[in-house]
Design goal:
Layout: H1 17-23, H2 33-50, E1 56-60, H3 64-73, E2 81-86, H4 89-100, E3 104-109, H5 118-127, E4 133-139, E5 141-142, E6 147-148, H6 151-160, E7 166-170, E8 189-193, E9 205-209, H7 211-216, H8 229-237, H9 247-263, H10 265-285, E10 289-290, E11 302-306, H11 313-324, E12 329-330, E13 339-343, H12 350-366, H13 375-386, H14 388-395
Parallel strand pairs: 2-3, 2-4, 4-7, 7-8
Antiparallel strand pairs: 1-9, 5-6, 8-9, 10-11, 11-13, 12-13
């Protein structure tokens, strides 16, 4: 693999040089005012990215998976029931985690390529007259299939069912790259990770907590120590941490959120949509399609490309790595071998994306795919040229 080439996996993403340098800092005393000067702007910037005024932000030295665990252990008790749809690898893994913690998971099985089924969620909540369901788990952006779900629609369904359950959202591969409105959508816990839209190395679980989620800690009886929100809150009030924090990553996070705000979140989201649409135009020119079942489900951070019958998408990824030194994502779970994934999030430009599309074309040509070199690149070029004004605006 060449370190000179950008990566096109759906995370970890490319790290801008300014963020890499911000993470590379001398040791500071994490119980001193010097750490507080790093920590406070990082937390304030995350709140802006999450779209919350009322919520609290918690940063754990972990990953998104640790964020999932913190969400459930701080708010739920053994035997509690949660509602979740399984429609991809990451929604499946959160379900599996809940089951391992002794929670009763009411699962709505959904075809991979679809999003979270709003109508079925509403029906399940409406049928729960005794309010056994304590939380609804929703994956905003299913990285395995390149599918986004309607989180605002889920909240409306919960409200129509007049159900008091909390709404927990996995936004690991969406937050910082796609619109996210924690307060506006009524999200009680939002989970993100440092290594995707925030453009950092892996190592931080980033959570937003609503006042309702904070209140739920009073009755939660699942065990937690490292991930205890109460310990974090007490230390935060004094400007510190209950244990040793990832100081360099937090310093990088402060730089990352400032970069996002300098670009303007609306421009960040427009850039991701533009780059993603160029990828989708290229796929269509190849005679292929995304795994997402319909255009309203298309993710702006990752596209799972369905390969033709008789081909294996994993081979594309292998050839890219071994012959051209470039990284794409393999298919996972039920779509393993049926797709290869193109990540298009984080620190990325139109020109960088064109290099990825050109390399993907060479790999497919090497494997005998029924494509003509240049067709996908030309389709993306045409789209990017016509929307170059948006690129200039975002860079201004």
């Amino acid at each position: 693999m060449s370190y000179q080439n950008p990566v096109f996996i759906p995370g970890p993403t490319n790290i801008p040089e300014v963020i890499r340098k911000a993470c590379d800092m001398p040791t500071v005393d994490h119980r001193s005012p010097a750490f507080a000067r790093v920590f406070k702007p990082a937390v304030a910037g995350v709140k802006a990215v999450l779209g919350t005024r009322d919520g609290e932000v918690i940063l754990f030295p972990s990953t998104g998976t640790g964020g999932w665990e913190a969400a459930i252990t701080n708010t739920l008790s053994p035997g509690d029931t949660v509602l979740a749809a399984r429609f991809g690898m990451f929604s499946h893994r959160w379900i599996d985690m809940c089951q391992r913690h002794g929670l009763n998971v009411e699962i709505i099985e959904t075809p991979w390529g679809q999003g979270a089924p709003v109508t079925a969620i509403e029906a399940a909540l409406a049928a729960d007259s005794g309010h056994r369901i304590k939380a609804v788990l929703a994956t905003h952006n299913e990285t395995a299939t390149g599918v986004k779900s309607d989180i605002a629609g889920i909240r409306k369904a919960m409200d129509r069912a007049t159900h008091p359950a909390m709404l927990f959202v996995d936004g690991v591969s969406s937050i910082g790259s796609m619109p996210f409105e924690m307060d506006g959508w009524g999200v009680d816990i939002a989970v993100a990770g440092s290594q995707k839209g925030f453009m950092l190395p892996a190592g931080l679980a980033i959570l937003g907590l609503s006042p309702k989620a904070v209140a739920a800690m009073d009755t939660a009886r699942l065990p937690r120590t490292f991930f205890d929100f109460r310990d974090m809150q007490k230390s935060y009030a004094a400007g510190g941490y209950p244990y040793t924090p990832a100081v360099g990553l937090i310093n990088g996070l402060a730089t990352a959120v400032q970069m996002l705000q300098d670009e303007g979140l609306a421009n960040v989201y427009a850039r991701h949509h533009r780059i993603a649409e160029g990828v989708r135009r290229a796929i269509a020119a190849w005679g292929m399609r995304p795994c997402a079942a319909s255009s309203d489900l298309y993710s702006d951070t990752v596209t799972a490309v369905v390969v033709p019958e008789g081909f294996n998408g994993t081979d594309v990824v292998k050839v890219a790595a071994e012959k051209y030194g470039m990284a794409f994502g393999v298919g996972l779970g039920e779509v393993a071998g049926k797709v290869f994934r193109i990540g298009h999030l984080g620190s990325l430009t139109d020109a960088m994306m064109l290099s990825g599309l050109a390399t993907a074309e060479m790999c497919m040509a090497d494997l005998g795919y029924p494509i003509t070199l240049g067709t996908g690149v030309a389709a993306a070029q045409d789209y990017y040229r016509k929307n170059a004004g948006e690129a200039a605006k975002a860079a201004a």
